[in-house]
Amino acid sequence: MVRRPIQPRPPVVEPTPDPNLEPEAEGQGSSGGRFGRVKESVKGVYSRARNYYDRSPRLQRFMWQRKVAPAFWTIASILSLVINLILIVALILVGRQLFTLKGIVEQDLLGGLNDNFALMDEAHIITTVDIATTIQVVDTIPVVFDLPLSQSTTVVLTEDTFMPGTWVDLEATGTGIYLHIDSPADITLPEGTELDIRLDLVVPVSQTVPVVLNVPVNLSVPIDIPLNETELHGPFTGLQDVVSPYQSMLSTLPNAWEETPMCGPLTNWLCDLLFGTH
After folding, report:
1. Mean of pLDDT over the chain
2. What are the phi and psi torsion angles at 252 (to 5°)?
3. Could you give the CA distance from residue 278 to residue 275 in angstroms, rounded to a whole number?
4. Beta-carbon neighbour count of residue 104 at 10 Å?
5. Helices (H), 56-123
6. Strand partners, 221
7. Which end of the chain has the lower number of beta carbons within 10 A, N or C?
8. Beta carbons of 224 and 170 less than 8 angstroms apart
């Protein structure tokens, strides 16, 4: 079987813009201009790569032997190697920061949440409430006391008053008449008679007095409410129960590559090379 040499293709000449052509319309935006420049740059890169490919028979034989399957597997192998190399580099970069990220999540994120939930559960609401209002008091007050009474006064009879066995001392004189009576007798005092008397007694007083008062109230009331004695205690402890298992799980994991089985005495040099453990 005679292999015919691959003839190089003629180079592709990049199109040059005609200076006589009119520039783009002013109505196009800045985004359209940037897109045009990017498009021209991509065309230029493609043209240079195509020219290099056409001028290199060795590259043509490597990429294309007039057979679809070998060309497909060659391109697939190159893409696979490139993708694997990118993934290995990404894993190495992530591995260098893996335990830093682990410490941030364990201590700063989960630990901070757990500690702050505990502090919130132990917190108190401390404030002062100023009260300025008026309270109306409606009540009855019992009044019970003894009233001493000692005084002289004049009373007036409201009706005829019969007084039996009253000692009467009566003396009457006139022309040739003299009358003197000094003996007990039954007499009747007519209505309207005024009598001078003296009162000397104790009067008991027992009375209920209704009271209606408007009392102004102005005071400052200090308030201290512990949150763990309110309904917020349940949500705070529940949030701690949600976060603490993840923090405990992360605390059992290694904190550096030296603590992992992969970086043993025989592979320390590899860990140092890849992850910079020292």
Report:
1. 79
2. -85, -10
3. 9
4. 13
5. 57-63, 68-103, 112-122
6. 129
7. N
8. no
Which phi and psi angles does 85 have, rounded to 5°?
-65, -40
The model carries a pTM of 0.43
Burial class (CB in 10 A: 0-12, 13-18, 19+), 236: buried
Neighbours of 157 (CB within 10 A): 13
The alpha carbons of the chain give a radius of gyration, in whole angstroms, of: 61
Q: Is the dihedral of CA 259, 264, 265, 268 positive or negative?
A: negative
Helix, coil or strand: residue 230: coil
- List the one residue out of 185, 191, 136 whose CA is nearest residue 165: 185
Residue 198, classified by CB atoms within 10 Å of its CB into exposed (0-12), middle (13-18) or buried (19+), is exposed
Tens digits of per-residue pLDDT, 69-97?
666 777 788 889 989 989 888 877 777 77
In which band, very low, low, confident or very high, does the pLDDT at 67 lie, cut at 50, 70 and 90? low
Residues 70, 179: Cα–Cα separation, whole Å: 178
Do 104 and 187 meet the contact criterion of CB atoms below 8 Å apart? no
Q: Which amino acid, 122?
A: E
| Residue predicted with more confidence, 242 or 275 | 242
Judged against a pLDDT cut of 90, whether residue 21 lies above it is answered with no
Q: How many CB atoms lie within 10 A of CB 78?
A: 11
What residues contact residue 72 under an 8 Å CB cut-off, 6+ apart?
none
